[in-house]
Amino acid sequence: MSDTQPKTELLKRQADMIGLTLEAVFTDEQAKEVLQGKITDSYLIKLKLDIDNKNGMLLILVSSIRKHIMEIYSVVGTSQIFRRIRTFADYIQISQDLADIGKSGGMDVALSENVGRALHRLFTKETLDEFLPFWQKKDPSRLSDLIEPAITMATKAGRVKVQAEIDKLSSAKFRYENPMKGTINPVAKPEEEVISPAPEVVDTTSIPAAGVRSGDMTPIDRQMEQFRVGFGKELRMKTVISPISGIDFDDLMEGQEILFRVPLDTAEGMTNANLLGLIDEDGNVAKAPIIGKFLGIASSKNEYHIFAEGPNNYLFHSIEEHPVKIAIPKIASSTPSTKQKSGGGKKKQESSGAGTLYTLIGVFAAIILVGFLIFVMVIL
């Protein structure tokens, strides 16, 4: 019985962790990679707040993959514990301090809720798209310029000052055993801001399959939507072009292997490289191209969208302005014949060497024979 209970608890914990992680990612495979520590799925924005004669601490959990606010914790009040909180501390220590504030009664609940709701309204999808590349680099710059006016307007405060730090972490680890649980609850999103899950996926460069709204779709949108069906996540890629040995658009066949690269000049590209396992523990990015299985091309005037099936149910999507020759993996078909030729040459060389040796031996024997005959004639 004692062995069964820990196993049951472990299985329950694993199931809970997977469930929480799936709220931050698109696929089960991504969830496993997060829980295995191969990638992170969220940013934690830590904000220390001075507002008139009160202090505060705000924690904003943001999905770095699905790109949405997951939770906002807002604790504002007059507790002396605020003085010992530092933004550079880890989330466990900060969460424990906030839980202590909640238990001690030094929290202004109404003001805390007001500030939290203001942040929910502030971080729209457009704002997140603008700031996520900075957070990828743990760069909190411009956050204070964004947040301070929003809090001032929401609370009518005379003075608001914000200090910010950013961490990358697993959202499930933050949420599962957080010291605030049962004491400090995340601020609920204002009802007028709540959006149903269906329209959530609108980014055409990084969306799950069939995620585009079916409203007023152009012909090319309809073509692209057909390729997205059945895939977990769409990754924006770059086509590898080979003007000499590449394959023309018209000659590509469904299922044929073609080559892509991950664009690494954006935060999204680095995230995708991480998802594809191209970044090692030292942060080095593999330079080898990625193979995708060609699905088809959606095209209109001066716009060619190339789709291919990548690993782990990822959909590769690259764009070209005109038809190009796409590179394919090299096939080492000439190796056996080359070896055969080199082997034949070697045999020929050996044969030639043997003939020369026999000639030298014959000449040497003839010289000895002539010398012997001369010697015999002299004696006689």
Structure description:
- Residues 193-214 and 333-351 have low confidence and may be disordered.
- Helices cover 39% and strands 20% of the residues.
- The protein is of the alpha+beta class.
- A 6-stranded mixed sheet has the order 5-10-9-8-7-6. Strands 3-2-1-4 form a 4-stranded antiparallel sheet, sandwiched between helices.
- It has 3 domains: 4-194, no CATH class; 219-320, no CATH class; 333-380.
- Strand 2 (54-63) and strand 3 form a beta hairpin.
List its traits.
single chain, 380 residues, alpha+beta, 3 domains, six-stranded mixed β-sheet, 10 helices, transmembrane, membrane, transmembrane helix
* Termini gap: 117 Å
Strand content: 15-25%
Tell me the major beta sheet: 6 strands, mixed
Strand order of the largest sheet: 5-10-9-8-7-6
Shape: elongated
User: What structural class do helix, strand and pairing data support?
Assistant: alpha+beta
**How many domain regions?**
3
Low-confidence stretches: 193-214, 333-351
Number of strands: 10
Q: What radius of gyration results from the CA coordinates? A: 34 Å
Question: On the 0-100 scale, what is the average pLDDT?
Answer: 82
